[in-house]
Every structure is written in C-alpha cells, then in structure tokens.
Amino acid sequence: MLKDGFWLLAVGFWLLVSCGDEPAADCQEPIAYSSPVDYEIVLAGNFGEPRPFHFHGGIDVKTENREGKLIYSIADGYVSRLTINMYGFGNAIYVSHPDGNTSVYCHLKRFDDKYEALLQRTGKDTLSMVFPPTQFPVKAGDLIAISGNTGHSTGPHLHLELHDTKTWVMRDPLMKLASIIADTVAPQAHSFMAYPMDGEGVFNGGFTKQTFGFGAPDTKVQRSEFTVQREFTAWGRVGFALWADDYSEKTYNHYGIRYTQLLVDGQEVFRSDVDSIPVSCQLEVNQWGDYDHWRHKRIWYMKSFRERGMRLPILHTNFEQGVVCFSEERPYHLTYILRDYQGNESCYHFTVHGQRYASITPHPRRVLLDSHQLYGQIIWPLHSIRGL
C-alpha cells in the first residue's frame, strides 16, 4: 500500500505541473463573469452549507420573496440544457462556458421565449433537453429566464450553481461573483465540541463528547480576535469540532463557513477550504458534521479531524488526521481561524492543559496517507483549479 501511495504521489505531482505541456486548447482562457440579476445581490444561502445528506451546491440569490425577476447569463457561452421537474431544481437552465465551467439557474418560473417555444412543442411537464454549442449561443448579460419558486424550493429565489463541465464537480460561485457581492462581516464561532477518542483520551475529566461556548460578543465586524478565559484539561487523543456561521451586513441570514483552520501551538493540524465538492462526496457531509447532534439539536458541529474513510478533498489534516494528542503536562495553545471568501476573518484562542490521567496512555497515531487519501487530496484538487 505504501508503495502504491508513493506512486500516486508522483503521478499527482506530474499532473499538477503538466498543464504547460498540453495543447493550448486544453488550458482554458479566463472569461469575465457578471451578475445574474439587475439589482444588488443579497444571499439567502452560500455554497457548501451543511444540510442532512448533502452540501448546498450553490448560492441562493434573494428575489424580494417574489417571482418574476429577470435572470441573465453570468458569462459568455451557450445554453446547453433545459430541465423541468416537479422536484429538485424545478425549471432549470444550463449555460456552458468556454473556461470549462457550466452555470445552472434553478427554481425558475419560466425560460426566455425562444426556449419556452421549444417546450410548448413537446407538451411534457417533466423533461430534459440538450443542445449543441451552435444552437443557442449567449453573451454575459443576455436574458435567459424569469425567477420563480418551482421544484424543491421553500420560497421564491434563484439557486445558482457552478460546475466543472467535464467532471461535474460543484464549485463555489463566489470564486467568480464575490467582487459584486457586498460582505464586510467576518464569520463567528459560537462554541466548540471536544471528542475524546474512545479509550484513548479524556477531556475535562470526561470520556464522551462535550460542548463549550466561546462566550465571544456578537459583533459583526471585518476582523475580530477573542481569547477564552476559561482553561481546560486533557490527556491522550482528543478531536475537536466547531459550530460557527458566516454573516453579511445586508441580511439576517447566516451561511456556512468557507475557510476554517485549527492551530495547536502555532502549527496547523486541520484546515477546510470549501471551494469545490465532488458530487460523489455529498453524503460525507454527515461524517464531517456531527449528524447525530444535528438530528437532536438542529445545530451542525463540523469536525476538525478526518473520520476514517472520508474522501472529501476540501479537508486537509496532519498525519494525526487532525486529532490532537495531549502527551505532555504543559499548556497547549489552540486557535481557530475562520475566514470567508472576501477575506473577513475572526480568531478564537483557548488553552488546554495537559493533565496526566492514570488510565490513559497517550499514543500518537501517525497515519501515512494511503492511496485512497492521496487520490482525494492530490488528484481531486486538480478539478478545483481548472478554469478558475
């Protein structure tokens, strides 16, 4: 397995640096992106928010809680597909772009007249139509649809997704649209959860998971830093999880966290960057998040360690898989750093004292990345950086 892992590492490195050797047509040229609406964008939801059994695959643009807003293509390309369904996306239009991305506009009331005419000829309520690149070319800002509330929608809005056209990996639309969306508010952490590993760790004298509030003030600012005055004790292997939300000055809605980092004594042990998610990894939201806690409390604690078998390429850990081993009788200084796509940032510091516990013998479990993890952390990120 170790030999296979090193082979995959070599292949991954070659793939990362080989774009310059490919034909020019395979290295996509950047294109300009613009707003899908003709008014100021306010988000009701962002990319990657944890939901039961899936991540939120795009951004939700508010439409003043009513239907009938004009929807425009966010970039040059061509209309590649139309779908109609009573569930899911409802009425949706797909626009493929020359940079290797496809944008998807969902929950629409209707399409632009030229596409509606095609639907009237079919006479069907549920359908999927695919078009060649030459049939319906569009430019950025061209009208393509009217907003609505069709499919699985709890209120009128535009759900906008961005995918890698070849792999259908979900990408964060803010990578293209952040410059036109106002946001000067940093994410805020509410509390953390400690997970003593079964038979291998203890935290504050307990062997089961526990939650602790940060007690930070509710201040919506661009940058904040807070130190928890209470100190904790631990011995052996302990994992951590975080309950946090992102915000905007334009609305009371809260969002998922784009970037999270956990440092122990200044060294990174865990990092998540929710930039792109393979569709095949959707169900892993229940492993990254504490689904059992959400089911009872309706609060998502997102783990700062990697559970066994997780493939999510947005998670990055040390060889301990993000679990902290308290093996010395000294203070350990932990810091959570939260950041949104616009760079607004908050930091939370707390101290955990290593306190010897008779029945626990600390044993670090350094795990070399196996071939499965190498595929997730080296090969998959290629789909995150193509065409950006």
Largest sheet: number of strands, sense, barrel closure: 12 strands, antiparallel
Give the end-to-end Cα distance, rounded to a whole number of Å.
34 Å
Q: Could you give the count of β-strands? A: 25
List the total number of helices. 7
Structural class, from helix and strand content?
mainly beta
Name the poorly predicted regions. 1-26, 380-388
Gyration radius from CA atoms, angstroms: 23 Å
Strand content: 35-45%
Looking at the structure, what is the overall shape? elongated
Mean pLDDT: 89
**Helical content (DSSP H or I, runs of 4+):** 10-25%
Entry keywords:
disordered N terminus, elongated, twelve-stranded antiparallel sheet, eleven-stranded mixed sheet
How would you summarize what this structure contains?
This protein has helices at residues 2-17, 113-122, 174-177, 285-288, 291-297, 371-379, 381-385; strands spanning 43-45, 50-51, 54-55, 58-62, 70-72, 77-84, 91-96, 101-111, 127-130, 137-138, 143-147, 157-164, 170-171, 188-203, 210-213, 223-248, 251-255, 259-264, 267-273, 276-277, 302-303, 315-317, 324-326, 331-339, 345-354. It is mainly β and 388 residues long.
